[in-house]
Amino acid sequence: MAKDSRIEWTHHTFNPWWGCVKVSAACKHCYAESWARRFGMDLWGKSSPRRPVSDDYWRQPIKWNNEAERDNERRRVFCASMADVFEGRADLHPWREKLWPLIENTPCLDWLLLTKRPQNVQRMVPWNDVWPANVWLGTTAENQKYADSRIPKLLAAKARVHFISAEPLLGPLSIAKWSGIDWVIAGGESGRGARPTDPEWVRMLRDECNHVGSAFHFKQWGHWSPSVPMGTAARQQIQLGAQTQSTSVLYAVGKAAAGRILDGRTWDEFPRKPSTLATLALSEQC
């Protein structure tokens, strides 16, 4: 959970602490909770503690920043894969106060702050109208209900880059009524009990991104695939029906076999704004 992340859309992950509480449908099969339980840690829920990390761990982003400066290549840092930076707990304030200057002092890293609580952002960050150019602020929107609730609060913050994580994508989702969304990450759910993602939901979101100029990144199909790869046997087959207003057929082949090909190609787009605004603003520092 640090350097050289296996997550396709970031270089590194940084977790200022571990633990969270579930707040919406996307949280039902939380991979971070499952990961923590593998290590025998009960960190999920309002009454559970949050796990701190070591001082050595906090120094890692400084090393990554130095490497990025040396290589003259910006690196992305996902913060936090095992928590939510904007969870409303007073005991997390000291760690947040430690995080903000770390972000400011690593200008060659683009910090991806992804939250399911965008309503808390403005009162927790130390920045008002002028945010550091290396902050990308995102929110999870697993369906239209949570998009309508969270995206306006996301866009109210003056971050240079705004992005949406539609993973797991659990229903049709349109972003057409908002401007200022720079990037959309979409993907299906994996693991035990994974819920299906209709390929038509993904296509609709991709096509809207292309229309409005938002970068589109398709991370994975997850457990359910719209096809059976050669040499793979499907463990189960389902047909999405009246409940989802779809006739799509999906196959349980597992995340690895399902892959991330959508209509014959991978979609690895990233926001253009960092290459213009953010990189130029930081060119003297990196």
Features:
17% strand, alpha/beta, seven-stranded parallel beta sheet, 9 helices, single chain, TIM Barrel, 286 residues
Computed CA radius of gyration, to the nearest angstrom? 19 Å
Mean pLDDT: 92
CATH topology: TIM Barrel
Strand order of the largest sheet: 1-4-5-6-7-8-9
SSE topology sketch:
Layout: E1 12-13, E2 17-18, H1 31-38, E3 51-52, H2 55-58, H3 60-71, E4 75-79, H4 93-104, E5 109-115, H5 121-124, E6 135-140, H6 144-156, E7 161-166, E8 183-187, H7 199-212, E9 215-220, E10 224-225, E11 237-239, E12 249-252, H8 255-258, H9 273-281
Parallel strand pairs: 1-4, 4-5, 5-6, 6-7, 7-8, 8-9
Antiparallel strand pairs: 2-3, 10-12, 11-12
What can you see in these coordinates?
The chain has 286 residues and is α/β, with parallel strands linked by helices. The protein has a single domain (12-227, 255-281), classed as TIM Barrel (Alpha-Beta Barrel), CATH 3.20.20. The chain is built from 9 helices and 12 strands. It has helices at residues 31-38, 55-58, 60-71, 93-104, 121-124, 144-156, 199-212, 255-258, 273-281, and strands spanning 12-13, 17-18, 51-52, 75-79, 109-115, 135-140, 161-166, 183-187, 215-220, 224-225, 237-239, 249-252. Helix 5 (121-124) links the parallel strand 5 and strand 6. The protein is globular.
